Backbone:
């Protein structure tokens, strides 16, 4: 059984299935294996398989029937010669979290017929990030959409050497200094400010901010936090601002040091979920003695007991904006960079 590895996994798998179809392994009219079956058989994520199947359908090698499945076409057209390749680099397509899957779906659902996606996992690792960029350039992709690693410890000179040609780029959540690119993100400053104001409106006074370890996002969250306190006439207490690691492994320790002195928390819902044991074991009762607002509104917000209020990350909207901006840059040769941040309303639940 073939093994599909490295940056070209999507392209390799696409070529493998295409050759299987054109070589007669699957006959016209045969029902094609499901996404779940292919993912399990070849050890590839369902997102990658779905992307490849979509490309094969677009090219006329396969066709789908609603509610029945995917079938091999009678007349197998050759691939479109001018099909555009888009490299998409997120943290980990395997996670299937609300944010990752939402971004990818937003991109794929708004992808034009003559485009297809090459997905790549950076695992939030800078070296893997450089490797992904090199792979995209070797594949000669027509554009790149990416979420840069959260450490923001980039070697900008190296990135520019890797990107050896002028290529359209869209960055999500974090910018890379001096890199020409469009940019889309949640407005972390406004979202944090809105969250803190809401908790203050409930009569709380001592609010803990667990800011993201990503420097730029953490700075924006602090700005929003202090803005809300200032407007409420509450003095700053830097002891109420803490940083957590993205893997969440220090979440319990961080919250355990502060839980007894606060009556409100604003943090990523992932942080809150990882530290839920500390909350449940404390004397703080969610809603009565402790108000919580999560940032992102992933499944973790809804897994809490009770489900927590949250600022939703607009992943579908950002994915849509990213692919539309990239397509516009490719097709219309737009030179002026585009930038937009999203400022969604809080979803009020039981916290």
Residues:
């Amino acid at each position: 059984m073939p093994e599909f590895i490295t940056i070209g996994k999507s392209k390799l798998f696409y070529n493998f299935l295409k050759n299987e179809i054109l070589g007669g392994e699957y006959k016209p009219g045969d029902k094609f294996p499901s996404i779940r079956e292919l993912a399990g058989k070849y050890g590839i994520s369902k997102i990658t398989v779905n992307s490849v199947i979509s490309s094969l359908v677009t090219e006329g090698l396969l066709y789908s029937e609603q509610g029945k499945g995917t079938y091999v076409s009678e007349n197998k057209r050759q691939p479109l010669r001018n099909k555009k390749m888009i490299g998409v680099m997120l943290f980990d397509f395997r996670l299937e979290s609300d944010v990752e899957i939402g971004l990818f779906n937003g991109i794929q659902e708004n992808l034009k017929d003559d485009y297809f996606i090459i997905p790549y996992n950076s695992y939030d690792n800078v070296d893997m990030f450089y490797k992904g960029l090199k792979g995209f350039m070797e594949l000669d992709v027509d554009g790149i959409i990416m979420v840069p690693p959260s450490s923001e410890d980039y070697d900008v000179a190296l990135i520019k050497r890797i990107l050896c040609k002028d290529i359209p780029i869209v960055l999500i959540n974090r910018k890379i200094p001096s890199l020409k690119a469009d940019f889309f993100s949640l407005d972390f400053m406004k979202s944090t400010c809105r969250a803190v104001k809401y908790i203050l409106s409930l009569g709380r006074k001592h609010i803990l901010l667990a800011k993201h370890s990503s420097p730029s996002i953490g700075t924006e969250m602090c700005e929003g936090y202090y803005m809300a306190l200032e407007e409420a006439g509450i003095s700053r207490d830097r002891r109420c601002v803490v940083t957590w690691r993205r893997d969440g492994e220090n979440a319990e320790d961080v919250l355990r040091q502060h839980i007894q002195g606060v009556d409100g928390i604003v943090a990523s819902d992932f942080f809150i979920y990882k530290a839920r044991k500390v909350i449940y074991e404390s004397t703080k009762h969610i809603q009565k003695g402790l108000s919580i607002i999560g940032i992102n509104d992933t499944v973790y917000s809804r897994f809490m007991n009770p489900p927590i209020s949250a600022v939703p990350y607009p992943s579908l909207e950002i994915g849509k904006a990213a692919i539309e901006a990239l397509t516009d840059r490719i097709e219309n040769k737009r030179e002026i960079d585009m930038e937009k941040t999203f400022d969604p309303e809080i979803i009020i639940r039981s916290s």
In short: The radius of gyration is 23 Å. The CA atoms of residues 167 and 176 lie 15 Å apart. The first strand starts at residue 62 and ends at 65.
